[in-house]
Amino acid sequence: MTIAEASYQRQVESTNQLKMEVEVGQRAPSEADEAIQRLLSAENALVTAQQRYEQALDRFKIRLSLPTDANIVLDQNELAALEEIGIRQPEYTEAEAIEMALTQRLDLANTKNGLEDSTRKLELAAEGLGVQLNLIGSANVSSADKTDIDRLQFHRGLYELAFQADLPLDRKAERNAYREALITTEQRRRTFEEDTENVKLDVRQAYRDLTETAETYRIQKIGLELAKRRVEEQKLLLEYGRGTIRLLLETEDDLVQAQNDLTSALVNHTIAKMSFFRDIGILQVKPDGMWEQRTQ
User: What tens digit of pLDDT does each residue of 171-194 get?
Assistant: First the structure.
C-alpha cells in the first residue's frame, strides 16, 4: 500500500468514526462535514498520485526503449530494501575520492592517451627538421676463373665508403607538419588539463551532494518521529474529549508529508551515492542490468 493510499484509508476510518459520534450526539454535525471535505480532498490527492505514477511509469518504459503498453509492475520490495539498508556513507575522504577518479575514470584515460599520441607525433615531426646523415658503404670482390669462396681476391677488391648528408635547407613540408603536431599537442594538453579539473569538480560536487542528502535524511527521520507522536497525542486528546477532529486530521496530513519527505530523502541519497560511484569511476553495470561497486 502506498503512502497516499494509507492516508486515504486513515481519512476514511476517521470520518466513519466521526459520523458515529455525531449520530449519538457526541460531536457537532459541522465537524462531520469538515471531515467529509478532507476525505474528498484525500480522495482527489489519491487519484492525482495514481495518475502521476502511471505517467512516470510510461516515461520509464520509453527510457528503457519499451512500448508504453508493455505490462510492467514495479517491485515494492525495492523501496523496503532501501529502507532496510538506510544511509551508508562510502568510506572515502574527498581527497581519496578525487585521487581514485583521476586513475579510474575511463573518459579521462582516453583524453590522456590522446595527449600521449600527439606528443609522440610531435617528437617524430621534430626529428624531421634536423640534419640527416647517412653512412654508405659498398664492397666489390672478384674471384679466379672458378667461382669459389676460397678464390675471392680480397686484396684486389673495390671498396667504397661515403657519407650522405641531407641539410635542413628546404624543410617547408616538415615545418608545416611540425607546426600542426605542435598545435594539436597543445590543444590536447589543454583539453586534458580542463578534463582533469572537471573530474575534480564532479567528484567534489558529488561528495557534497552525498553529505547533504545524508543530513537531509537524518533531519526528515526526526521529523517523521515527531509527526507520529503528534498524531498519537491528538488521538488521545480526542478520546478524552479534549481534542478536535480538525487537529487530528491536520496532524495526519503532516504525518503523510513527513513520510513522503523521508522517502524522497532516501531516494535522493541513493541516487547521489550512485552518482558518486559513477564520478569516481567505480560504478559498473553488469550484463544483467544490475550495478555493482567495482573494486580498485
Answer: 677 777 888 888 999 999 999 999
- What's the CATH number for 90-130+171-296? 1.20.1600.10
67: helix, coil or strand? coil
C-alpha closest to that of 269 among 83, 94, 104: 83
Instruction: Check: CB of residue 252 under 8 Å from CB of residue 7.
Output: yes
Strand residue runs (E) in the chain? 132-140, 158-166, 283-285, 291-293
Greatest alpha-carbon pair distance for the chain in Å reads: 144
Cross-strand bridge partners of residue 161: 137
| CB-CB contact of 136 with 127 (8 Å) | no
The answer to whether residues 223 and 258 touch, using CB atoms and an 8 Å cutoff, is yes
Whole-number average pLDDT of the chain: 80
